[in-house]
Design brief:
The complex is a heterodimer of chains A (about 270) and B (about 325). With about 270 residues, chain A is mainly α. Chain A is about 75% helix and about 0% strand. Chain B has about 325 residues and is of the alpha/beta class. Chain B folds into 2 domains: about 5-225, Rossmann fold (3-Layer(aba) Sandwich), CATH 3.40.50; about 225-320, 2-Layer Sandwich (Alpha-Beta Plaits), CATH 3.30.70.100. Chain B has helices at about 45-50, 70-75, 95-105, 110-120, 140-150, 170-185, 195-200, 220-225, 240-250, 275-285, 300-310, and strands spanning about 5-15, 15-30, 30-35, 60-65, 65, 80, 155-160, 185-190, 205-210, 210-215, 230-235, 255-260, 265-270, 290-295, 320. Chain B is globular. Classes of the chains: A mainly alpha (about 270), B alpha/beta (about 325). Chains A and B meet through α1 and α5 of A and α2, β6 and α3 of B.
Chain lengths: ~270, ~325
């Protein structure tokens, strides 16, 4: 077996381990299934009853925002799981085995793709129950889902890198929460970013989360025919810019994470 | 017979702390070697270097004929390691844990599954095989971790404090398993804080302190170095401790140690039970009430005190000459 074959086989072994963990750990499973359901119901019923938009139901407008918010949130499970494993001896075990060292991270992030697919499917189904609809062709809608999962995968590498730099689960949790809230709320996920005041407007318009939300709205047909077209450049080219964001994140963080992993485990 | 493990002049620093300071080891193939020492002596650092987890700052080491730095990847296929923190996954079952390790040794899916079942049976875990490890007792976890180290039947095995934190029954159970293993010709390097454990399992023992070996020999040789039996007795009141120490000094073959916390007097003696009787007589003459008294073999503490002039756990105890 050559090195690449081994790296793939080892990655799949680790992914299998992490998938089993998610299935058996109530705290993780809650984040994957329960939280998305709660988000969809809570936001659509609370905000949906108060906010009206021209030409589109707020629930339809909102759901792509909730998709993105949830995957940004659950990407943190990647980092959290890594910090927890760092506290135990399991990485020492892995490192005394003749396995590919990269498999720990490729396997972990791969398992998190499965997790993200599960939560996006769950949200879509609950979304359908509360009135969310896809108004585009099946290929466009499929591209929408692929783009969400692809971004989630790239973002998993970001949280993995942050987690390996911080190492302690409680520190990681605090930092991840502080970082992800502005990312989620200083965006167009819940409101039209064009109507934000002052400096918040450009921040929200250039936020990659906004781009992804806009791309998902376009690909699912949830933009609203009477809503004003976005003027900011990334939002006008939301689909290619979203894909580009995911690629850039992968290019930066895929090489960075293994380095921090080596540093974290050789302490 | 060639050496399965060779370490020469290993040095490892963590910031200002010198963990290893010229560690030298030679372990002949098929023998069990015990590294004995207190916490912080450098035992775990030595094992981490020999199992490729850490790179030494200076010196070199070979395991199974392979350099631990240059041939690290190949070496990992020939060693098994079981640590002081059981490296098992809580959410996975016992069988899944071992299967995963087998796959990562590249045994193939079917062989990994068979091997997992064999080891679970051998380590008396068959009943718990399909339960998540979360519900395992401390002893079961350690057995599973040890089983993990044996998945690929490696010729060299490293056991870092395999029984620390276990209750006495689980400890004895694990000793039986390890002794059985050694019968199969595996070379084992074992670290421990307990002389009794090294005594029971190891052919040769190296006493480690401040990152290097300070004494080397069989368990009996080390005990002889320490001297023979000791009397250990405790008094009922702190006021009596000094008096008892002075009263017993003439019977001691060495230094009399007083432990004010435990109200305990310890002294090495030559005459065995007869000396114990005399000691109790001396104390009765001084009207000192004795709560507990006994004769015992040397412990790690005694080995340490003799070799280094201080206790293994670095507690300061009052000394009377």
């Amino acid at each position: 077996m050559n090195a690449l074959h081994l790296a793939v086989a080892d990655g799949l072994t680790i992914a299998r381990r992490n998938a089993l963990k998610i299935r058996r750990a109530p705290d993780l499973l809650g984040g994957v299934i329960m939280l998305p359901v709660v988000f969809v119901l809570l936001f659509t019923y609370v905000f949906g009853s108060m906010i009206t938009l021209p030409g589109v139901s707020y629930n339809e407008y909102l759901l792509p925002g909730i998709f993105v918010m949830t995957i940004v949130g659950s990407a943190q499970i990647t980092g959290y799981t890594l910090t927890q494993d760092l506290q135990k001896g399991i990485f020492d075990r892995f490192r005394t085995l003749p396995m590919s060292p990269s498999a720990v991270l490729t396997g972990q992030t791969l398992a998190d793709v499965i997790m993200n697919v599960t939560s996006v499917v769950t949200m879509a189904l609950v979304g359908l129950l509360v009135g969310w609809r896809i108004h585009t062709s099946p290929p466009e809608a499929a591209l929408g889902f692929v783009m969400l999962v692809f971004f989630a995968y790239a973002f998993s590498w970001v949280t993995a890198t942050v987690a390996l730099a911080l190492r302690r689960p409680e520190v990681f949790n605090n930092i991840a929460t502080i970082m992800s809230f502005p990312l989620m709320f200083l965006s167009n996920a819940f409101v039209d970013s064009a109507r934000l005041p002052g400096v918040l407007k450009p921040i929200a318009e250039w936020n990659p989360v906004s781009t992804l939300v806009q791309a998902a709205r376009e690909l699912f047909g949830n933009t609203g025919s009477l809503m004003p077209e976005p003027t900011a450049w990334p939002l006008r080219h939301a689909v290619p810019v979203s894909l580009a964001w995911s690629v850039v994140l992968l290019l930066v963080f895929v090489p960075l994470a293994p380095r921090l992993y080596r540093r974290a485990v050789s302490q | 017979m060639s050496d399965a493990i060779v370490a020469e002049g290993l040095v490892k620093k963590f910031g200002d702390v010198v963990a290893l300071d010229g560690m030298e080891l030679r372990v002949p193939e098929g023998t069990v070697f015990g590294l004995l020492g207190p916490n912080g002596a450098g035992k775990t650092t030595t094992v981490r270097i020999l199992t490729t987890l850490l790179r030494p700052d200076a010196g070199r080491a070979e395991v199974a004929g392979l350099d631990v730095v240059r041939d690290a990847r190949r070496l990992r296929g020939r060693i098994g390691a079981s640590g002081q923190y059981a490296a098992v996954d809580d959410h996975l079952t016992g069988a899944e844990n071992l299967e995963m390790v087998g796959r990562l040794y590249h045994l193939g899916v079917r062989r990994s599954r068979e091997r997992a079942r064999e080891l679970l049976e051998r380590f008396d875990l068959t009943e718990a095989a399909d339960r998540p490890v979360q519900g395992y007792s401390g002893g079961m976890r350690r057995r599973l971790d040890l089983a993990g180290a044996l998945v690929a039947a490696p010729p060299v095995l490293f056991l870092d404090e395999p029984t620390t934190g276990l209750d006495p029954r689980a400890r004895i159970g694990l000793w039986d398993v390890i002794s059985e293993l050694v019968g199969g010709g595996t070379t084992v390097l074992l670290t421990t804080q307990y002389l009794e454990e090294a005594d029971r399992l190891a052919d040769r023992i190296a006493v480690v302190d401040h990152g290097h070996v300070i004494a080397l020999g069989t368990a009996d040789q080390l005990k002889d170095q320490v001297g023979g039996d000791r009397i250990e007795l405790s008094v009922t009141s702190a006021a009596d401790l000094e008096t008892a120490g002075r009263a017993l000094a003439p019977l001691a073959a060495g230094e009399v140690r007083l432990d004010p916390g435990a109200l305990r007097v310890t002294l090495p003696v030559a005459g065995g039970a007869a000396t114990l009787t005399r000691a109790l007589g001396e104390l009765a003459a001084e009207r000192i009430a004795v709560r507990d008294a006994g004769l015992r073999r040397p412990t790690l503490d005694d080995v340490f005190l003799t070799l280094t002039g201080r206790d293994a756990d670095d507690r300061t105890k009052e000394t009377v000459r």
